[in-house]
Specification:
Enolase-like, domain 1, 2 domains, 3-stranded antiparallel β-sheet, 4 helices, 20% helix
């Protein structure tokens, strides 16, 4: 999921071909194919992960909320990459884990970060934009609230307010 926020690419090879795949295109949603989690075919192997260099004044962070040990699956996790310019967020990407069948890059929320003045009020207002298209089930609706609060926390940690 952090690789998604970092715009990573994967090199996928088999005995006949080699291709580079953006991380955002690696996972497969159940509505596309209920029997697959990713695009790998029989014989495919990931041979490299390419993480582009971050621009100047860029920082990143990852938060994982879990029940017990570090080896547990995340209840909700969040990765953020933010490019700051003084008191302004120039651009950013936020990706979530544990809130969808695949790691989820919140494109709407990420677009709201562009040229956003950094203030506690603005960061808290972003909570309303977290996972706006989500349709949580009754048993996991708490994850939506957790994701909103983690978004504010990670942005406060990555910016200078």
């Amino acid at each position: 999921m952090a690789l998604l926020a970092l715009d990573a690419q994967l090199t996928v090879e088999n005995s006949k071909t080699s291709k580079t795949v953006p991380m955002k295109d690696f996972f497969v949603l159940p509505e596309k194919n209920i029997l697959r989690e990713n695009i790998l075919n029989s014989g495919d192997i990931i041979t490299s992960v390419i993480v582009p260099s971050l621009p100047k004044n860029t920082s990143s962070a990852y938060i994982k909320v879990k029940e017990r040990g570090a080896w547990d699956f995340a209840i909700v996790s969040i990765a953020a990459v933010i490019q700051n310019s003084g008191t302004m967020i120039q651009s950013g990407k936020i990706a979530f884990g544990g809130v969808a069948p695949i790691p989820w890059l919140d494109e709407k929320l990420s677009s709201r970060l562009k040229n956003l003045p950094v203030s506690k009020q603005n960061l808290r207002l972003l909570q309303d934009d977290v996972l706006t298209d989500a349709d949580p089930l009754a048993q996991n609706s708490y994850k939506h609230t957790l994701a909103k609060n983690l978004t504010t926390r990670i942005l406060e940690n990555l910016t200078t307010i």
